[in-house]
Amino acid sequence: MTDYSLENWWQPFTNVRAFRDNPRIFTRADGTFLYKEDGQDVLDITAGLWCCNIGHGRKEVADAVHAQLMEIDFAPPFQFGTPPAFKFAERLMQHTPADINRIFFTNSGSEAVDTALKIAHLYQHARGKGSKSRFISREHGYHGVNVGGTSMQGLPSNRHGFPVLEQVDFLPGMLDIERNAFSRGLPEHGTQEMADAFEQIIALRGANSICAVIVEPVSGAGGMVPPPKGYLEKIRELCDEHDILLIFDEVITGFGRTGSAFASTRFGVTPDLMTSAKAINGGTVPMGGVFVRDEIQQTIFDHTPTNVPEFFHGNTYAGTPVAAAAGLAALDIYEREGLFTCGSEAKGQYWEDALHSLSDLPQVIDIRNIGILGAVSFDPQHLPAKSLGPKIHQRCLDNGLLCRAVGDHMVMSPPLSISHEEIDLFIERFRKSVTEVLGEVKVSAVASA
Ligand code: PLP
Predict the structure, then answer these.
(1) Averaged over 119-123, what is the pLDDT?
(2) 3-state class (DSSP) for residue 103
């Protein structure tokens, strides 16, 4: 069908051999829809990959990118600057917690994570606490694919076979279907278990060996798990008590996903460092960044001689004028259309009710949501674990719906610009796909009995 070879691009996180047998190619996107080669529309309930929070194909962003390319396409970011990066950085700070007014731009979330780990380390050295070099992460956490982030990963398949830093301990994961099933918003249980595990790590390692804790405020790639009530507040409290930095990995929770610009503003918990990427400019031009508490930057500056860079670190494409111009245009849309807060307003309620209406489907053991984000977990029953999710995922795709399977959890994170009618369409296509798959699975189980 294609007039190009599928052999040369080694795709990320892809079963490439299976893909070559069954290529899944999108050729066009508009609003909340992607379009396959044959023209079939696919409702994008993933916002690409948590990226296109303003919807696909926004002309305003395209125009801004074009204009910027014609004005100044690129200039070295080391020792030089261009206006869009400074303007974008300044505008972003209208949406961050009060103490956070600095951003170090990167190209991706993975780079943002590794940059945050380095800043945390540098800060501890700058304040004479160089012994604080260990990190605490969390089981099922995902923090990108660079060596630092891989070391912080709590997902075994993303660690095995790769070089990782050894100085990391893990808090327990937050998914607790037994106690928290069908919670709307933040679940009840789990904060105490996290606090106990935190104290155990402190007792074992000593607070003077620990640099920072890194967690996603809402676990994403681990199956979309909102934090239990009081969890983020408690982790902040424990970090303060033990003089440990707190890094929120907001690569997916940033830019309106949870019903505020950031999860930190939604929940009123300010971290010391906050990573971001993906939806920062609507997923149009690669860009990420680390938001930094002012005092951290100041301490590093104060410790550094005035004739050298304060941070020997950075990417060639950091804060490129094109990515920043896209960011400024995307920010106009986020602000004008109220997309940062819609998840905690009427649309968030509509989304929550729609999602929980699926609870009557067979084999559903949990539905959870926060902002414009949700997950439906299935019990695979007589199937091997983690095999039902991929079947549902494929059938959804056949029926014109793109959602994400994490094992037997189906994860949804549509563009925030999704309409109520499109939410209804999602429910219709999802229900149909699940019903079909479960019907077939049941028939084949009976036949083989
Ligand atoms: N951190 C989190 C929480 C993520 O979800 C991701 C990607 O999904 C990353 C980091 C890595 O971002 P990127 O794929 O842009 O490198």
Answers:
(1) 98
(2) strand
Ligand 1 mean position, distance from CA 110 (Å): 6
Q: Is 110 in the pocket of ligand 1 (CB under 6 A)?
A: yes
Q: Return the closest-CA partner of residue 42 out of 51, 50, 34.
A: 34
**What CATH topology corresponds to 61-336?**
Aspartate Aminotransferase; domain 2 (3.40.640)
C-alpha span between 414 and 408 (Å, rounded): 19
The response to whether residue 143 sits with its C-beta less than 6 Å from ligand 1 reads yes
Q: Domain extents for the chain?
A: 16-53+340-448, 61-336
Which superfamily is assigned to 16-53+340-448 in CATH? Aspartate Aminotransferase, domain 1 (3.90.1150.10)
Q: pTM of the predicted model, to two decimals?
A: 0.97
List the beta strands (DSSP E) in 224-311. 245-249, 273-276, 288-293
CA of 385 to the centre of ligand 1 (A): 25
Overall average pLDDT of the 145-173 stretch: 96
User: Ligand 1 atom closest to Cα of 278?
Assistant: 15
223-269: pLDDT as tens digits: 999 999 999 999 999 999 999 999 999 999 999 999 999 999 999 99
Joined tokens for residue 395: 């059938």
